[in-house]
Write a structure and sequence with these properties.
This protein is mainly beta. A hairpin with a 5-residue loop joins strand 9 and strand 10. The longest helix has 28 residues.
């Protein structure tokens, strides 16, 4: 009887030893792409993830010159900002493919794809870098990207997003308004701006936006133009528009974005309102200069950025007795804020010379109150420079950062989850252990009863 009991115990323990490592598998992602493509060609990149828990995200950094086109399957959430493309999915693992267009090159060049994968607790794990060579050999057919977009409530054919067409293709497009809305106009690049069904000739990359307006809020035969205003940095302040436009929206909580729609030739006054600790610096985009308030004429769609800077000024470290440069420093940027050991962290600030003379600014980076690195910049009046320090740390822990009197931090985590939370896989592992213990107790009781 003792031998039988010991055999069962050994079998249960062995099952636990085999099961738990599989349940506690780390978060990983593998990227598959061609080793080489021809200049200007499109190609597919496949991502396979595992161990993410309830949900995960892959953040890919495309090399300069590469253009993201589309992703399959459709249930993968995609958000693109510059060269960074974020793919969000539900489930412990995912497999998806995204399409990319290579740059046109005159000489054969090798590029590197980089990325990270995040688990359900937003812990980050690096994806192994992959190189791809773009050859300057005989290129295939010339292709261009058509980007479809909507403003208001409606849809387009082709659908919203990026589509690849051969050069000189004439693409038929159409716009369909949702209930309570109507088609107003196309933005540009089409044969007929006012027709809901028209064509686009692909002699270059094109972006086409279908504008929809609520029924009765604008004349059917009158185009509307959109003024989009962004604050940089987002916490620096806000902008008011006068008139506000017949429809205005503020969205994207991560940054202050204001949009107003206007009839042609409307004069709009923009007033920048700094938050505490900031001053208004200048306008950029379709409005330049430092007048506040200032006006724009809505003869087309326009994008304006209101640039704010910290009100605190710093004197230069060098310069003549009569030199009067003053420096304003933007908020500190730390990206990413959570990394694996030896994964690169970029720490940056923007320095603006608000004075009347050229001067030098010494940017000193402190990590845990110790000097990590420094850089001296020469900045002319009215100009700005962005300084970036790229560092790595091998030891897990939280690192305090100071740069230009701005404070921040980042965390180096180990190979396991740094959040302290169990996550889905941890909870499942505990359930398995409890079940095995319960089975062991039941077996013991049966053996004892049989004895």
């Amino acid at each position: 009887m003792d031998r039988r009991f010991l055999s069962i115990v050994a079998a249960v323990i062995l099952a636990a030893v085999i099961a738990l490592p599989a349940l506690a598998s780390p978060t990983t992602a593998v990227r598959t792409l061609p080793t080489s493509v021809v200049s200007g060609d499109t190609f597919d990149v496949t991502i396979q993830t595992s161990g993410c828990g309830f949900a995960g995200q892959v953040v890919e950094t495309l090399p300069d010159g590469f253009t993201y086109i589309s992703c399959t399957p459709d249930d993968i959430g995609v958000k693109q900002v510059g060269n960074t493309v974020k793919f969000t999915f539900l489930g412990d693992s995912a497999s998806f493919t995204y399409r990319v267009k290579a740059p046109a090159v005159d000489t054969t060049t090798t590029y590197t794809f980089q990325g990270i994968v995040k688990d359900e607790n937003k812990n980050e794990y690096p994806i192994e870098d992959d190189d791809i060579t773009v050859t300057a050999g005989a290129p295939g057919p010339i292709t261009y990207i058509l980007t479809m977009a909507v403003h208001g409530n409606g849809s387009t054919t082709p659908s919203v997003g990026n589509h690849v067409y051969d050069a000189r293709d004439v693409v038929s497009i159409s716009a369909t308004a949702d209930s309570g809305w109507r088609f107003n106009r196309w933005s540009s690049n089409v044969a007929d701006l006012s027709s809901s069904s028209t064509t686009v000739t692909m002699d270059s990359g094109k972006t086409v936006t279908a504008y929809f307006s609520p029924t009765g809020e604008a004349k059917p035969d009158s185009p509307i133009y959109t003024l989009t205003v962004t604050c940089q940095p987002s916490e620096g302040g806000s902008v008011t528009l006068s008139p506000a436009g017949w429809r205005i929206r503020v969205h994207e909580p991560s940054e202050e974005v204001t949009r107003g729609d206007y009839n042609p030739d409307t004069l709009v006054e923009l007033t920048a309102i700094p938050n505490n600790g900031y001053v208004f610096g200048s306008w950029s985009g379709d409005l330049t200069g430092s007048n506040n308030p200032d006006t724009v004429s809505m003869d087309t769609d326009k994008n304006v950025t209101a640039n704010f800077v910290l009100s605190a000024s710093e004197r230069p470290i060098v310069g003549g007795e009569h030199a009067r440069p003053y420096f304003a420093v933007s908020p500190l940027s730390v990206s990413p804020k959570q990394v694996q050991p030896n994964q690169q962290v970029d720490i940056s600030i923007n320095i603006v010379n608000q004075g009347e003379k050229t001067g030098s600014y010494e940017a000193i980076l402190y990590i845990n109150e110790q000097v990590e690195s420094s850089r001296t910049l020469s900045i002319s009046p009215g100009s700005s420079q962005n300084v970036v320090f790229s560092i790595t740390k091998a030891t897990p822990g939280t690192y305090a950062v100071s740069l230009g009197r701005q404070q921040g931090q980042f965390t180096v985590v180990g190979s396991q989850s740094a959040s302290g939370g169990l996550g889905v896989s941890g909870i499942v592992a505990i359930v398995v252990i409890v079940a095995l213990i319960a089975a062991l107790v039941l077996v013991f009781r049966r053996i004892k009863k049989g004895a």
